[in-house]
Every structure is written in structure tokens, then in C-alpha cells.
Amino acid sequence: MSSNEEDAKTLEVLYKRRGYFDAKRDELLQQFKQTDTHAQLLEMIKSIVDEIVQTKPELLLKNKGQLAALIEGIILRQNSAAHESSLTNFGIDVSKLSNHDNYDVYQLFEKQVKSSTEGSEELRNSLIQTLHTLRREKLPDLT
């Protein structure tokens, strides 16, 4: 590995170890929570959950972790062939549900994340400034 590659890897490790990555992620999440897309996503998820619970109310008696995993799986597999079978496996009558392909939660979230990060001069400048600071400190955390 070249010296530049080692320096880059070291900076990456320091960036994460010192909590800069988590702090930036939290900052972006807080910014996201202020957008209309966040409210729209919450409404979509609420609609999906309400409809599933109306179709099979006994799901509310399941362990919260199991129910959350079921809902997450349903949302993540919305546009896949596994979507209908995952619902059927939990005893949900798919014919009683509206077309959830209209609720493309993941796609909406991904679009928002990309629009707030890709090409963002503010994010780029913040990262560069932090990495320059770490480089100037000459990497004392890895000794």
C-alpha cells in the first residue's frame, strides 16, 4: 500500500473513531426530519401499517421486535417478487390490501438522501475541513 493510501485509510479510521462520522450522520438526519419528505414518509408508513393491522389485527399481539421486522421487510420488499409471499406467510390476505407499490418508501427516502448529500458543497467542505484538521494533528490516535 502506498503512503497516500495508508494516510487516507488512517484518516478514515480517525474520522470514525473520533465520532465525526456519527455526528455528521446525526446532523443529516436532523436536517432530514425538517423536510416535507420526512412527513410524507411517516404518512406512507403509517398508512401501510394501518392497512396491515386492519387486515390482521392479531399482529398487534406479536412481540414488538417481530412486528417491526415484519413491517420493515414489507417496506423493503415492496417492489419485489417476494413482497406478496412475505405478506401471505404472515397470514395477510393480499387481496384485501391496496397496491402498496404506490408507497415506494425506500425510493422516496433514497431520493431525499441523494439530493441532500450528492453534490453538496456544504457537506464536501465540512468533510475536507475535518480531514485537513486530522491530517495536521498527524494521526496521534493510531500509535
From TrEMBL:
It holds the Pfam family COMPASS-Shg1. Residues 15-85 form the BOD1/SHG1 domain. This is BOD1/SHG1 domain-containing protein. It comes from Cyberlindnera jadinii (strain ATCC 18201 / CBS 1600 / BCRC 20928 / JCM 3617 / NBRC 0987 / NRRL Y-1542) (Torula yeast). The lineage of its organism: Eukaryota, Fungi, Dikarya, Ascomycota, Saccharomycotina.
